[in-house]
Amino acid sequence: MWFCRALRRVAPNGSRTYATQIGDKKVAVLGAAGGIGQPLSLLLKSHPGASSFLSHLSLYDVVNTPGVAADLSHINTSVKCTHHTGSDALPAALDGADVVVIPAGVPRKPGMSRQDLFNTNASIVQQLTAGIASTCPQAQVLVISNPVNSTVPIAAETLKKAGVYDRRRLFGVTTLDLVRASCFVAEAAGKRPENVHVDVLGGHSGKTILPVLSRVPGVQLTKEQVEKLTNRIQFGGDEVVKAKDGLGSATLSMAYAGARFTLNLLRALKGESGITEAAFVESDIFKKDGVDYFSTQITLGRQGVESVGEVGPLDEYEQGLLKDALEDLKINIKAGVDFAK
Ligand code: NAD
Ligand code: LMR
C-alpha cells in the first residue's frame, strides 16, 4: 500500500477534505439498483474522503446493475465500481467484501406494516446471507431490508447454521430513526437539526422504536410535545409511504442514513477510535426477557461491534414505552428465528 500526502485545497472532485491514505476496503451493496441501493451507492462513491478507506464498490442486484455501475463510474473518485446481476453472479459480487450492505427486497405500500413484507423479504435475506456465509464469512453485514426486527435474526440464524456467526459483525440499520428524531425534535424545539442528538432504542417498527426524549441535551419538551413527537418518530416511515402514494417508502433519507452508518463503520474498521452509532444488534441487555436483539448506542472498532451501550435512565413514560417495545420485539424476533429454522 502506498500513501499520498494530499494538499489542503479543493480537489477536482470538489472535496475540501484531504485523504492521506488510499483505501483498501470493498463494500458490496446487495439490491444496488433499487430505490435505496442507487443513492446509497452514489453517496459511498462520491463522499469526500471515502476513497481514503474504500477502494471498491460492488453493485449486485437481480436487475439493472450495468447501468448503475456505468453511471457511477463516471464520477471522478478512485472508488472502483463493478456490476453483478443475478444469483449466479453473487459469489463474484461478494468475493473479498469487507462490508456487505443489504437493501434488497420489497418496500411497503400504504396500509401495509413492515411485518407484511416478511413473506417476500425473509427468503431474500436468507439467500443473500447464505451467500455471504460461503463467500465472505468475515464481512460486516448491514441489514436494511424490512422487517429489520425479523430479518436480522434470520441473517444471524443463517450465519450460525453455516458456523460463521459472530455477533460483532451483524447490524440491523436503525440510523434513519435517529436521523428522523433529530429532525422532528429540532423542528419542535426551534434548533438546528445538525446540533440535536436523540437516542432512539429498541427496534425498527412502530412501538418497538423507543425515542428517549427525556434526555436530549439542551432540549426541554412539554408532556404533550413528548407524546406527539414519540408517535411521529415511531411512525415516521408511514409519513413517507403515504406521501409516495404507492411508489414505495423512504429511499433518499434511508440512503443518507445507510451511507452515514457504512462510512462510520469503515472508519472504525480502519482503526479510528471512539466512533459510535445506534444499531439493532445481538445484545445481552434484555435476554432475560427473551429479547436477544436490541438497539442502543454501540461503539464500533476494528472487528465491528466493540461494545454495546446501556439503555440509560428512562422516565416513567419511557419505561412504559420500553415494556410495549419488548413485547413486540419478542414476537418479531421469534418470527425470524422460526423462519430460519
Ligand atoms: P426497491 O424495490 O426500490 O429496491 C429493492 C431492490 O432489491 C430492487 O432493485 C430489486 O431488484 C432488488 N432485489 C429484489 N430481490 C433481490 C435479491 N434476491 N437479490 C438482490 N436484489 C434483490 O426498494 P427500496 O425502497 O430500495 O427498499 C428496500 C428495502 O429496504 C425494503 O424492504 C424497505 O422496507 C427497506 N427499508 C428499510 C429502512 C430501514 O430503516 N432499515 C428504511 C427504508 C426502507
Ligand atoms: C422507514 O422507516 O422509512 C422504513 O422502515 C421504510 C418503511 O416501510 O417505513
UniProtKB/TrEMBL annotation:
Residue sites binding substrate per the record: R108, R114, N146, R180
Pfam families: Ldh_1_C, Ldh_1_N
Top-rank lineage group of the source organism: Eukaryota
UniProt enzyme class: oxidoreductase
GO molecular function annotations of the record: L-malate dehydrogenase (NAD+) activity
Record: active site: H204 (proton acceptor)
Presence of keyword Oxidoreductase: yes
InterPro entries to which the protein is assigned, alphabetical: L-lactate/malate_DH, Lactate/malate_DH_C, Lactate/malate_DH_N, Lactate_DH/Glyco_Ohase_4_C, Malate_DH_AS, Malate_DH_type1, NAD(P)-bd_dom_sf
Domain named Lactate/malate dehydrogenase N-terminal: residues: 26-172
Domain Lactate/malate dehydrogenase C-terminal per the UniProt entry, residue ranges: 174-339
Keyword entries, A-Z: NAD, Oxidoreductase, Tricarboxylic acid cycle
Signal peptide: none
Binding annotation for NAD(+): G31, A32, A33, G34, G35, I36, G37, D61, N121, I144, S145, N146, M254
GO terms, biological process: malate metabolic process; tricarboxylic acid cycle
EC number: 1.1.1.37
One Gene Ontology cellular component annotation held by this UniProt entry: cytoplasm
Catalytic activity: (S)-malate + NAD(+) = oxaloacetate + NADH + H(+)
Family, as annotated: Belongs to the LDH/MDH superfamily. MDH type 1 family.
Description of how the protein assembles with itself and partners: Homodimer.
Record-given protein name: Malate dehydrogenase
Taxonomic lineage from the root: Eukaryota, Rhodophyta, Florideophyceae, Rhodymeniophycidae, Gracilariales
